[in-house]
Specification:
alpha+beta; disordered C terminus; 22 helices; six-stranded mixed β-sheet; elongated
């Protein structure tokens, strides 16, 4: 009986165990079959990312500004690490990678131990040669060939790329960025990231237990990358280089040269500048300290800083007086005896000798402050503030660069809320009239405003990207239509202001007689702006030239450099003369390089060469504007 019970218990137990085994197998193979099959396949199949080639950046004549060059990069496969401590010592000694950095990278990649981690990029070839013998001791490390960015000259507008950080990866991971990805950090590299980046491809590999490719897949196992689009800019490298050469060394400031017809920027110079190539490798403490000196070389003074504009702002105030009917071009206001008393305070003119009683044309010519003190006292502050906004010198221009700053012009609400002032604003208004006090603008805002005057009153959004090249061609207007609107000026207002600007550079007594451009008619305005940054004024010049049509507008700004007529205008004059001296060369379009030609263009060029062997294919210079703007003559040439 006892033996029978034992036998029964054994059979029942065996049966239960069998049922449990069957149940477990059913769960593994049926209920969880798909789940575990995917896990097995993930260990059997590897998907390797094939990085797309980033688009390059060229000037208007297809000369490189940013290009891709070969690089050597160090990768780690964390699943193949043999001795972590030994690896950490090797990486610290040869690549400056701290052990805690290594541990963090390995931890972040703990669920994808077969994927490569980029440890160091753009390694010198000499280092590769020296370390090649020791690399055999670390099968988890791999040197791969790739590309890195090469920036042809120091500048602010291209920006630079860098390794994606945790915040960026969290934000963009759904857009197929990897932990090894590079991303545009500033400038055009950032603004046009979507166009430049392209889309990575995929390569499917069958691997063994050690992660080595078995090369069993031969067909339909990859998705080719879509390379990024290259950018063709409006920048002219020759003009950019020349502007850089004539800007005084050691001075902080900027130069902007804009094509009046299109609004495209031909030269974009902010000083001091920096070399974007330094960001293509790990930055040392010394280099980083050099980038954070009081001169602020990383600061783009064209759009990331705002300054009191001084007298280059006077056309804004003057045009409002003309538009409201407070004055016309012949009206003479208070006589300047070196200043004007407003309330209990005497507001000085820049000339202690005074200018007498002037009209608006002469007031611009000699830059008389008293005229504008008197003029703004006859106008409502809120109306002037609204007019400044309509002239485009308050809000961002919308240039295709990130982080542009606004300008500022106060209204009654500002003085009431910030200063508790509700009446007696004439003293504040006097400073505003001449671009002082609380008025702030960016150099680009002033450049775009003067470009609007040059083209007869049409404000056009400035831009740098002309079109893309590569798999698709997209013009700036196709990507996003440029914002355009007329200045709130009548024809008579426009003529009076232009006559004043002509007198500044051409009439006796003009403050910018240093601007003399044979073969062109010049217009401009100087400015010397007091500021909180020091006792020496900021120097400004804004102006433009015409031949048979409006050509270029130039803005020169210098921090704490002195008078605009003495410091900024001569630099602008050199740029004007360089442009006129090289006019045909600058106007002449460049042929599209073979790598950017479409199939139709390539076949057309071949056909053209075979049919007309004695002629060199070329393009006509850009056509002139339909209606050249009238040059002041006779009584207007004051």
């Amino acid at each position: 009986m006892t033996r029978s019970v034992q036998s029964l218990v054994f059979r029942v137990t065996l049966g239960v165990l069998f049922l449990l085994l069957v149940g477990a197998l059913f769960r593994l193979q049926v209920l969880k079959g798909d789940y575990y099959r995917r896990i097995a396949e993930s260990n059997f199949v590897r998907i390797r990312r094939v990085v797309a080639t980033r688009g390059e950046i060229y000037d208007s004549k297809y000369r490189p500004i940013v290009s891709n060059i070969p690089s050597h990069d160090l990768y780690l496969t964390s699943g193949r690490i043999g001795n972590t401590e030994r690896l950490a010592m090797f990486l610290k000694a040869n690549f400056g990678i701290k052990p805690e950095e290594l541990r963090k990278l390995v931890f972040e990649q703990r669920f994808k131990t077969y994927e490569e981690i980029l440890l160091a990029d753009n390694l010198p070839y000499e280092m590769i040669l020296v370390l090649s013998e020791r690399m055999g001791d670390f099968p988890e490390l791999t040197i791969r060939s790739g590309t890195t960015r090469s920036y042809m000259y120091p500048n602010h507008f291209t920006g630079y790329v860098g390794r994606i950080d945790e915040k960026e990866y969290s934000r963009y991971r759904e857009e197929d960025y990897s932990l090894n990805a590079y991303i545009g950090k500033t400038g055009l590299e950032c603004y046009y990231e979507v166009l430049l980046r392209g889309r990575d491809g995929k390569e499917i590999m069958q691997v063994d237990a050690q992660g080595k490719s078995l090369e069993l897949f031969s067909k339909n196992t990859s998705i080719p990358p879509q390379n990024g689009l290259s950018l063709i800019l409006t920048i002219d490298n020759d003009l950019q280089e020349y502007a850089n050469s004539v800007f005084p060394p050691g001075i902080k400031g900027c130069v902007i040269v804009t094509d009046v017809k299109t609004g495209g920027i031909l030269a974009y110079l902010s000083k001091p500048d920096y070399d974007p190539n330094i960001f293509m490798q790990k930055i040392s403490t010394e280099v980083w300290a050099g980038l954070n000196t009081p001169s602020k070389p990383l600061l783009d003074r064209i759009i990331h800083a705002s300054y009191p504009p001084g007298s280059v702002y006077k056309p804004v105030t003057g045009s409002k007086g003309l538009e409201t009917g407070v004055i016309d071009r012949y009206t003479r206001l208070a006589s300047c005896g070196g200043g004007l008393k407003i309330g209990n305070r005497f507001f000085r003119c820049w000339s202690s000798a005074g200018h007498g009683s002037l009209n608006i044309v002469d007031a611009h010519k000699v830059s008389c402050d008293v005229f504008f003190y008197d003029l703004i006292s006859r106008m409502d502050l809120d109306a002037v503030a609204a007019h400044a906004k309509a002239c485009g010198v308050v809000e961002k221009t919308g240039i295709d660069l990130p982080n542009e700053r606004n300008g500022f012009y106060p209204d009654k609400k500002y003085y009431r809320d910030k200063l508790g002032v509700t009446s007696g604003l004439n003293g504040y208004k006097a400073n505003l009239a001449i671009g002082q006090g609380e008025v702030l603008t960016t150099p680009l805002q002033m450049n775009t405003f003067y470009a609007a005057i040059a083209r007869g009153g049409m404000w056009v959004q400035p831009y740098l990207m002309k079109q893309t090249m590569g798999s698709r061609r997209i013009t700036r207007d196709q990507l996003q239509a440029l914002n355009k609107h007329p200045l709130p000026w009548s024809a008579s207002t426009m003529k009076a202001i232009r006559d004043g600007l002509w007198a500044v550079t051409n009439a006796p007594g003009g403050t910018a007689r240093a601007v003399r451009v044979p073969g062109a008619t010049s217009y401009g305005k100087t400015g010397s702006a007091q500021n909180f940054m020091g006792s020496v004024t900021h120097a400004w010049f804004c102006g433009f030239i015409e031949t048979d049509k409006p050509e270029i507008v130039v803005t020169v700004f210098m921090e704490n450099a002195g008078g605009g007529g003495a410091m900024a205008a001569p630099v602008a004059n050199k740029i004007f003369n360089y442009y006129i001296g090289n006019l045909e060369k600058i106007r002449q379009p460049a042929p599209i390089p073979p790598q950017f030609r479409t199939r139709e263009e390539r076949s057309g060029a071949a056909s053209e060469q075979s049919e007309i062997p004695d002629e060199t294919p070329g393009s006509e210079p850009r056509p002139a504007l339909e209606e050249p703007v009238e040059t002041p003559t006779g009584e207007n040439s004051t």
